[in-house]
Design goal:
The protein has 85 residues and is mainly beta. It contains one helix and four strands; from the N terminus they run H-E-E-E-E. It has one domain. The radius of gyration is 17 Å and the shape is flat.
Length: 85
């Protein structure tokens, strides 16, 4: 049935490969520190000059072993701190 839905309305679907995510020690409520899959979203300003903002947004899988990091599907986010540049 799913294949039929794609064939009927292909513009409504996106296919992409699974991206290998980094694992990072993450502070988890009541569990202490555990490894979680993450991806880092840095911010870059582009104008007359290019400026890389110190910090960014780290999206994190809330469940151990999960690859889901986007908030609409059950992931979360944490601030990213740059201690030195």
């Amino acid at each position: 049935k799913f294949a039929e839905m794609i064939k009927a309305e292909p513009r409504n679907f996106i296919g992409q490969p699974v991206v290998s995510l980094s694992r990072h020690p993450t502070i988890c409520d009541e569990l202490g520190i555990e490894g979680r899959h993450i991806d880092l979203r840095p911010f870059v300003l582009y104008g007359e000059q290019i400026e890389i903002i110190p910090g960014g947004l780290t999206r994190v899988a809330l469940n151990k072993g999960s690859l889901v990091v986007n908030s609409s599907q059950g992931g979360g986010s944490k601030d990213t701190w740059v201690l030195r540049s």
